[in-house]
Write a structure and sequence with these properties.
380 residues; alpha/beta; Enolase-like, domain 1; TIM Barrel; ten-stranded mixed sheet; 38% helix; binds magnesium ion
């Protein structure tokens, strides 16, 4: 079964409001759909949740000739063929068009392109074996817990609008909800967090996500201020430059578990976040870097160190891993219809998301189907 075609479709969908995190604003939902086709007619689909769209999509397309003719079931061989484009080689002085160079500035985009291709290869594997991914990975249950993610700072709306939003998820049956922090003063966030805690009751789990907002000193002050509201985890508290060893120092001064990993591009960084950062929840995103193959390496490391997995975003992918991994904690989901047009509109066949539970289907591979008319409409 040989790879004959690789194609990226980059989608940018305009949203009806502008969402903010501490990291910045976004008014479009961006994603890339990757197709890999084999010589016996199977087409695997992967998704990439990362920008810049055009740069990453161009790399996906450029990798087509590099892996054309390789065995579509050989996910490790393809992974290393692509990954090795980022590291030195022994043919210096000889130009080779099939071996483009991906230097420091391009590595992060190459890891995202690799994610989309790797996921498409796993989808092919499931389709070839006629097995849904959760079974191919060894799981025996189709239901996984899902938490409701949202709670952004919305442009033009009161910062306290988050209270009604989170209460709404709790009313829908979600027993775990996540909101943003770090995009306001600590006092401003206390008003939001305390209001949400009051609205969702004592029993619901409340996660907060700073999206890398704080210095170590500010993160210590913030979590001390937020601790009284029974925070289930503190996600990406630290600015990017101190998001490994600094996490360990922060972990030593709070009982609130730390969660991180969605912004990293390699398993070695997550290894260090576990070893040096004392994180208790790994939030790897298979659609952003390295694909499912890298996700499995991370899951194995986390398992050996007593750390749980709570994959970031894209439940149509990560729900399958969660179902197959005993240390899978909870899958992230976005019940808000305006916030996630990809899940709610573009994916026509997908797992059922309801009342804090994701139910996976029996379709082979990842088992989702795409509305190609909408892809055409929103393609850049
Ligand atoms: Mg996050």
């Amino acid at each position: 079964m040989k790879i004959i075609r690789v194609k990226a479709h980059a989608l940018s969908m305009k949203l009806d409001k502008v969402y903010w995190t501490s990291r910045g604003a976004w008014g479009t939902y961006n994603t890339i759909v990757v197709e890999v086709e084999t010589d016996d007619g199977l087409i695997g689909i992967g998704t990439i949740n990362k920008t810049p769209l055009k740069d990453i999509a161009d790399i996906v397309d450029a990798l087509g000739p590099v892996i054309k003719g390789m065995d579509a079931l050989a996910h490790e061989a393809v992974w290393w063929k692509i990954f090795n484009l980022t590291v030195p080689h022994l043919e210096a002085g000889q130009s080779d068009a099939t071996r483009p160079i991906y230097d420091q500035n391009k590595r992060v985009n190459l890891m995202a392109a690799l994610a989309g291709i790797d996921l498409a290869l796993w989808d092919i594997k499931g389709k070839a074996m006629k097995l849904p991914m959760w079974r191919l990975l060894g799981g025996d249950k189709r239901e996984v817990p899902a938490y409701a993610s949202g709670g952004y700072y919305e442009e033009g709306y009161s910062p306290l609008a988050v209270i009604d939003e989170m209460a709404g998820y709790a009313a829908q049956g979600y027993t775990a909800v996540k909101m943003k922090c770090g995009g306001a003063s600590i006092e401003g966030d206390i008003a939001r967090i305390s209001g949400v805690r009051k609205a969702i009751g004592d029993k619901a789990q409340l996660m907060i996500d700073a999206n890398g907002a704080y210095t170590l000193a500010d993160a210590e002050r913030a979590i001390k201020a937020f601790e009284p509201y029974d925070i289930f985890w503190f996600e990406e508290p630290l600015q990017w430059h101190d998001a490994t060893r600094g996490l360990g120092r922060l972990a030593a001064c709070t009982h609130v578990p730390l969660a991180s990993g969605e912004s990293e591009m390699h398993s070695n960084v997550v290894r260090d976040q576990i070893d040096l950062g004392s994180i208790r929840y790994v939030q790897w995103d298979c659609t952003r870097a390295g694909g499912l193959t890298e996700g499995l390496r991370i899951a194995a490391y986390a398992m050996a160190h007593g750390v749980q997995i709570a994959y970031h975003h894209d439940p149509q992918i990560h729900g399958h891993l969660m179902a197959a991994q005993p240390h899978g904690f909870c899958v992230e989901s976005f019940p808000s219809i305006p916030r996630d047009p990809f899940w709610h509109q573009v994916l026509t066949v997908k797992p059922k998301l309801e009342a804090g539970k994701l139910t996976l289907g029996d379709e082979p591979g990842f088992g989702f189907e795409i509305d190609w008319k909408l892809v055409k409409k929103w393609q850049i």
